[in-house]
Amino acid sequence: MTTANLIRPTRHGNAGICRGCWDQMHVPIPIRGVLALPFRAFGITRSKMNPNICTICERSFRTVKKQRHVTVDATILFADIRGFTALSERIDPVSLSEIVSVFQDRCAQAIWAHDGIVNKQMGDGLMAIFNFPIVSKDHAAAAVEAALDLQRLCKAALDDLRSMTGGPQGQAPGVGVGIHTGDVEIGEFSSFRSDFTAIGGAVNLAARLESRAAAGEILVSAETAARVPHLMDGAGERLLALKGFEQPVQVRVLAGT
Ligand SMILES: [Zn+2]
């Protein structure tokens, strides 16, 4: 295999280079194989947000974008374990941490498979971004497909842990998901952390939708749904009064299987 073959990016899971640096700067940064070794010596490795991006994308936002923040059309996904507080009062900390790690692993697997990044992990919850730094033309579809996958993967894994959460008759914990698409500000907004995140009204709406999703549900905003009509077959409709929104918000409801 030639060097050119090694560094040429492909749509999915390319052999060698950081997809974020390629999409944002057209700079090939090797993150796998022997070409990555000299970079590793300088602390440039694969990001924990997504193994197809590197720690330059993750921690050097200003260097990459030459700005404090940028406005990006993106899809934001929030997921969390429903009823986690009640669960934490019932079961021991070791079992609880196993449930959290199963949840985080399966979610990451689904999100990475659709080119999203796990931007924040908050114990029993997470926030993912689609369309930055890996550019994805169909990011709304990618996020909805990732949500369907993560519901399926989490359900199978959490059902297997049912004995931990209350015996065979006990109810396995479920996951709620909220998704919204719109302009977000992406940049470094914290003075003590140098990795990027997304902020703005679109992020808040995705978080609010997630907070209203029951176990197994995916709440999709009208803006996201309008971009993915082919994924809305059989989706329910719900009108939600949300904190911070004057008018009730119409959402589509997908039930993960
Ligand atoms: Zn990178």
Task: Write a structural description.
This protein is of the alpha+beta class and 257 residues long. It folds into two domains: 3-59, no CATH class; 69-255, Alpha-Beta Plaits (2-Layer Sandwich), CATH 3.30.70.1230. Helix content is 37%, strand content 22%. The chain is built from ten helices and eight strands. A hairpin with a 3-residue loop joins β2 (117-121) and β3. α7 (93-113) packs antiparallel against α8 (139-160). The radius of gyration is 19 Å and the shape is globular. It binds zinc ion. The site of zinc ion (ZN) has 8 residues, from α2 and α4.
The secondary-structure class comes to: alpha+beta
Tell me which oligomeric state these chains represent. Answer: single chain
Bound molecules: zinc ion
Query: How many individual domains?
Result: 2
**DSSP helix fraction:** 25-40%
- What is the N-to-C succession of helices and strands? HHHHHEHHEEHEEHEHEE
Taking all residues together, what is the mean pLDDT?
Answer: 89
Q: What's the architecture of the largest domain in CATH terms?
A: 2-Layer Sandwich
Quickly name the level 1 CATH class of the largest domain: Alpha Beta
Q: What radius of gyration results from the CA coordinates?
A: 19 Å
What is the strand tally? 8
The CATH homologous superfamily of the largest domain: Nucleotide cyclase, GGDEF domain
**Coarse morphology:** globular
Count of helical segments?
A: 10
Uncertain stretches: 1-13
How can the largest sheet be summarized?
8 strands, mixed
The CATH topology of the largest domain turns out to be Alpha-Beta Plaits
Amino-to-carboxy terminus distance: 42 Å
